[in-house]
Input
Amino acid sequence: MTVRAWTGRRHREGGQSAVEFVGWVAVLLTAALAAVQLGFVAYAVQQAGTASRAAARVASQDPTADAGAAGEAAVSGWLGAEVGVGGGGEAVTATATVPIPSVLPLFTLPSAQRSTTMPVTTPATD
Output
């Protein structure tokens, strides 16, 4: 093979490497977005658990306190958590619902929901 034939063939293959590059960039970008979305899902689930535990703890120790507000205050404000407290008697249950943020606005994800039940404790009286 002559030098001229070799350089001509190499020049024609330049477009193929550009197509391969664009293909790999798309694959890597998709993988990165999926990793970020998975992080958002894990964070929302963790925050829902934190909110439900905080609300249940407050409600179990003081039935007159605003346990829902305590649960909402225990999480990041930008998530917009909703906390409901129910029960009574010997146990109280708090349920927190946190919307999962989406990386791409085309997709809507369900909310993360966690519930916590704690026994009602009576404060010690003097």
